[in-house]
Amino acid sequence: MFLRNAIERILNDKDIKRSHHSQLKKSCEVALEELNGEIAEYQKTASASVVPNLNQFIEADRYFLPFELACQSKSPKIVVTALDCLQKLIAYGHLVGKSPDNVNPQRLLIDRIVEAICAPFSGPHTDETVQLQIIKALLAVVISNTCEVHEGTLLLAVRTCFNIYLASKSAINQATAKGTLSQMLNTVFGNMERKGAQRTVDSSTSSENVELVVRNLLDELVHEVAVRHKSDSRLSVEVGARREGTLSVTSNDSAAPSPRHMSEMSTRDPSEIADSTNDDSTSGHLMFDSILQKDAFLLFRALCRLSTKGVPDAPDPKSHELRSKLLSLEMLLSILQHAGPVFRSSEVFVIAIRQYLCVALSKNGVSSIPQIFEISLAIFVELMDKFKSHLKVQIEVFFKEIFLSILESSSSSFEHKWMVMQALKKICLDAQSIVDIYVNYDCDLTAANIFERLINDLSKIAQMRHGAEIGAGASNERTKEKEKAMRIMGLECLVDVLKCMVEWSRDLYVSPEQQPDLAKDDGSGNSREASITGSGGSSSTLTASTSAYQFEQLKQQKEIMEQGINLFARKPKQGLKFLQERGLIGTTAADIADFFDTEERLDKAVVGDFLGDGDAFCKEIMYAYVDRMDFTGKEFVASLRIFLERFRLPGEAQKIDRLMEKFASRYCECNPSLGLFASADTAYVLAYSIIMLTTDLHSPQVRNKMTKEQYVRMNRGINDSADLPEQYLSDIYDEIAGNEIRMKAGTNKIPKQQTNAATTERLRRVLYNVELETMAQTAKVLMEAASHVQVAFTSATHYEHVRPMFKLAWTPCLAAFSVGLQSSDDAEISSLCLDGFRCAIRIACIFRMELERNAYVQALARFTLLTAKSALVEMKAKNIDTIKCLITIAHEDGNYLDSSWLDVLKCISQLELAQLIGTGVRPAQSSHSGKKHSTQFDSSSAEYVMRSSGIHLDQKLFPGLQESLNETSSQSVIVAVDRIYHGSNRLDGDAVVHFVTALCAVSNEELSNPSHPRMFMLQKIVEISFYNMGRIRLQWSRMWAILGEHFNKAGCNANEHVAYFAVDALRQLSTKFLERGELPNFRFQKLFLRPFEVIMKKNRSLAIRELVIACITHMVSSQANNFRSGWKNVFAVFHLAAAENDQNIVEAAFKTTNDIITTTFDGRFGTVLDSFQEAIKCLSEFACNVNFPDISMEAIRLIRLCAKYVAENPQQFVEHQYEDAASIPESQRIWVRGWFPIMFELSCIINRCKLDVRTRSLTVMFEIMKTYGGQFKPDWWRDLFRVAFRIFDIMKLPEQQTEKAEWMMTTCNHALYAIVDVFSQYYDTLCAVVLPDLYDQLYWCVQQENEQLARSAINCLENLVISSGLKFSEQLWQHTIELFLKIFNCTMPHTLLTWEPDAPVSSPQMQ
């Protein structure tokens, strides 16, 4: 109905009666008549169905002519009516335009319809209602499901909306046109994505029928050959359409018309959008998957071209040029932001981005207009996110020539720097992009170090080393705000980069919360190495690791190369030698020439100076270098340009002469048949003259320029006394005048910041605009050169890339964070710096980078102000936050801190001191529990704490000090510190050793104060010992090797409070440990209890030694059943106590020893076998203490009792596994471990003690021989008698021994009778073993001057012969008789028997 109503409204319009509308009126009348007839016909055949029959559906295509003429009329009302009807007909599917156009059969009717819709717009003066209606109609066409517009028609629709946006004066129409454009683009690219997805599904489905697919492909190829004469663009569309099965775009016609071209577009007004598909050969050679993809490509290319149009330097914000560029860039940005998988994976769009978009961005990316610059940056960020794998060279150009150059420029504006920083921040949030930048550029031998340069620039910005240029010309307050904002942005970028590294290496990090409680005795002591190794076990991981290693090798090689290039710039020969020694270049002249020719980073001025040197080897290199150039068939000036582009001519005339001479020779060699030059001398002179001409014509210092006639005159007679053709010289002059020969400058020198800052804002802008223009030219040239180049891009996958990345970044990051913390009190800056410290320490910890980790931890520790005692009064909120940050790092990264634990724990130790000062609590050193009780702040207590800690401060500053340190005593800080110690049970085996080592080192520092030692860390050592008690023995032994040594020192401290606490803590730990028991053959109890022995030995305090004895006594009484190897330490301590003079110590130690011997030895003798010798030594020491004779007698009795235990348990001695069991045969163990120690110690008692004790010991010794001698073997008897004969050794000492006479009368006499008595009792065993030694001992006694001893020896010999003589053999009798003879001879009074009186004395004196 609205079709008829629209025609009727047009006929009823008053303007229809005008003469120029006669054709329109007639067309409307004819159409109305036909339409009424068709409606009447349909009504006759109408059915009763509610739903109309398909045959009743009226196609509006044949009624299009009235509306076309209406659109061409000048009446706004008629045009609006026509456009409104067309929009509705298209929207409801009545107007589809699939039939061929009857005017031009080469195209479809829809193309004509779109042209008719666009025709009413003629510029800014078009009626606003008409503009709005055009927009609505075009949108209906593009988004309609029933009609299709492609190629030129689609571009026409988009262009018209674009022009309406630019030309319309109505804000509503502008907004509508912009929204319509966005919707059109979304529709076009959305259709392409859906088609691509459908093709993917279809291809997967069709794979089931391979034969059909092959047949279709063959048919397609045959058809392509058949239509080969067609244009490339038409062929590509047809192929794409056939692939879809939609070659025909008409309704039901069997013969499909040829695809539409955009040639019609060239006849239209080329206003804004590029409107031809044939003006660039690229699209003609591209193969599109579908017509939809080609539509999207054409739109994308048109927008790219539109964005490259020029804009005035200071455009009006409402100008068409600026708004056009901004809109095109916004549309491109929208396309990239919503890019689907088809767009991202299509080679067509990758080419378009490289050839069109990147070239456009090279210009817009350096625009001085902030809006253009901002959108360009946003587009680059999108490209970086979605297309970086295809744009390796382009990304390098953007970073190197634009972004980083703007950041480094001293004249760039704050707005531009700020927008660059915002773009970089988005890039820095993506870990993949950051690692890819490093891998693809910093590890590429020929690429720039983008990552390294980026980090350095961000660090400088974060430190405000460019602060003088930011906001030039603004007020001071405004400048400070800008500096702060820029500084924060730089810090945020650095922190984001570090967070990306942390994220990239997260698989290596093991959180303490994820770590099992290693203090649980479950036998699982897996260290971090196991988890790391386990994560990389697959072959894919191994391959990635190998790749990461290769990139690291490339990076190292690149660093060496850059170092050599920098050295070459200063000292060329040394630089070459440096590179040759490392194998990067060869040693021959050809190798060096090749290096000069291919290495772009070399300083061209230095290369020219080196090549011109007169040294023989330099000349050889120069000849090889020039010989690499091919001048064949080239003009002389062109060859000279090529020659001088490779390097910069030196300033010395002789060097220039050598170079030009070789050039002339090479040119003539390459062009022998030129016939122009008589010899190389001519080329040489001409080259010189060209260089002089270039300087003369283009140097601003030369005012009087050389004329052409002067130049020709100057070159007369240079061709072997002949002239070169005048026209030839004239052409040379014209070429040089129009195109200067530019020589290369140094390229490897670091650009220096301009020392003279712009004095005015205007001058700064001028300088910046010049820089932007230079950047744009350079970027455009590089971008165009790279547009047809495909360079492989590596997508990083391995975590090992982070290690070399952090090696590059850690120094600049540390500088930035340190400066930020030190120079600013702003909370946001401090928070960012602390986040950076946390991330950097996490990375250094994960990769075990000791130097970097220590640097960051030590810097963070300094910023707590805890290590500098005098700076406590300056503590601020940022320092409190630093303390909390350090504590958090200790808790989260404890497994990786290693030696850095020392710095952390030093701060925590000083934190406790700060808490004491802040709360005014005096440390209760008299309390051995180590607990502190909080009280009201007491200035005297605070003063005491500070004085005892070596801090000197004016008392007037105490209130301020308390306020600044009060936060250190907050509950959150206290809980966080406690969590470190409580969480130590989750540290792995290596980490807990480092943790304990640092604890002991800090505790030693605390205890080293002779007047006021602190025990804070000593208390914490006790705590963590309890927390980690459940660890496996292997880990505990490593821990206790450190802890035990520290307890030794603490227990021997001169301060009794410290020693008391250490000993008591040892008691508690030992009791707890003994409760766990010890399996046979383990020796850990001995290690654990050794500190008691050391303290008992070294500490001279009587009270501490008493405490040690009390602790040992307590442990023995409560844990005797669990003692195994610890008995050795118990007896060692009692052995030391036995030598004391203090009655309490000796009696307490002996009482416990007595209990052990009488109770434990009796019931569990097997558990003390390892310590049996120590027990006997201990009893021997008790027996030898002359101050306590009763204890001495009891000790000997206990030794006698031990002999009974040995005799009753011989098998246990044999079966027991001793520490050195392999060195002692089983048959000898009871002797070595049991009998011999008893006999030896008894002999020692005899030799050391006074008469009553040694007599008792002698008696017990021989009682044991008589009682248990039957168990002794012959060789045991031999050793035993040697021990017994030691009793007589005292007689061999010097005569000064006062007790010698008494010894002979008592002990020796007693011993002789006892020995003979034992010999007689066990004669059969001892006769062959010890009789000769016994006879020798008796003979020695007879020889002594002591008559009693000699008589006793004779009596013993007599008793021996009487008691055992009947058993003597003939040989033994012979030996006995010989002994008698020897005794008789040595005792015979020879002097008396041969005495004679002396002769008479005749001396006068005698008389």
UniProtKB/TrEMBL annotation:
Residues 246-281, 514-542 are annotated as: Disordered. Residues 261-271 have a biased composition (Basic and acidic residues). Keywords: Cytoplasm, Golgi apparatus, Guanine-nucleotide releasing factor, Membrane, Phosphoprotein, Protein transport, Transport. Gene3D superfamilies: 1.10.220.20, Arf Nucleotide-binding Site Opener,domain 2, Leucine-rich Repeat Variant. One of its GO terms (biological process) is protein transport. SMART domains: Sec7. It is found in: Cytoplasm, Perinuclear region; Golgi apparatus, trans-Golgi network; Membrane. The keyword Cell inner membrane does not apply. Residues 530-542 have a biased composition (Low complexity). InterPro entries: ARM-like, ARM-type_fold, DCB_dom, Mon2/Sec7/BIG1-like_HDS, Mon2/Sec7/BIG1-like_HUS, Sec7_C_sf, Sec7_dom, Sec7_dom_sf. Residues 550-739 form the SEC7 domain. GO terms for cellular component: Golgi apparatus; membrane; perinuclear region of cytoplasm. The keyword rRNA-binding does not apply. One of its GO terms (molecular function) is guanyl-nucleotide exchange factor activity. This is SEC7 domain-containing protein. It comes from Plectus sambesii.
